[in-house]
């Protein structure tokens, strides 16, 4: 992960160092490289990936310090069900750093490539236009301790995590 790219994303979103970033992984096995996963957590992940979930887990030493929450040493991880993202992951051979594009002062994430180009195009190296994506963000589930804690309700069904 390049420091300059991470700093640019922080600047575009006006994020501080305490913001939780997410690593978008190609599959469940890649999550284990970057996050600590015990057997109980593995079973939950296996049942719900790929999908519209972001999981907060304790990070391994493989995670670049720039992406870690400074006090909790945690990282968000997710395995999406999206063909363009999987093509990018396959081409890169490593996870992508991700953050939802919610501009300062806005309540909803930007999801239209043309609007993103108009507003931020001068500051971006590339925009991949796969059409507009969901407005609803992923469901964020903290799995650092069980039972899971729901951080944000989103597209993913949270019922399996609130048992």
Q: What's the rounded overall pLDDT mean?
A: 89
CATH topology of the largest domain: DHBP synthase
Strand order of the largest sheet: 4-1-3-2-5-6
Main sheet overview: 6 strands, mixed
| Total of helices | 5
CATH class of the largest domain: Alpha Beta
> What's the structural domain tally?
2
Radius of gyration: 16 Å
Strand percent estimate: 15-25%
Indicate the low-confidence ranges by residue numbers: none
Q: Looking at this structure, what is the CATH superfamily of the largest domain?
A: DHBP synthase
Helix content: 25-40%
Helix/strand structural class: alpha/beta
Could you give the distance between the termini? 37 Å
The number of distinct β-strands equals 6
Q: What is the H/E order?
A: HEHHEEHEHEE
CATH architecture of the largest domain: Alpha-Beta Complex
The geometry reads as globular
Give a quick set of tags describing it.
163 residues; alpha/beta; DHBP synthase; 2 domains; 6 strands; 28% helix; globular
Tell me what you see in this structure:
By secondary structure, the chain is of the alpha/beta class. The chain has 2 domains: 3-100 and 138-153, DHBP synthase (Alpha-Beta Complex), CATH 3.90.870; 106-136, no CATH class. The protein is built from 5 helices and 6 strands. The chain has a 6-stranded mixed sheet, with no helix packed on it. The relative contact order is 0.19.
At a glance:
The protein has helices at residues 3-13, 28-34, 39-48, 83-92, 113-120, and strands at residues 22-24, 53-58, 74-78, 96-98, 139-142, 149-152.
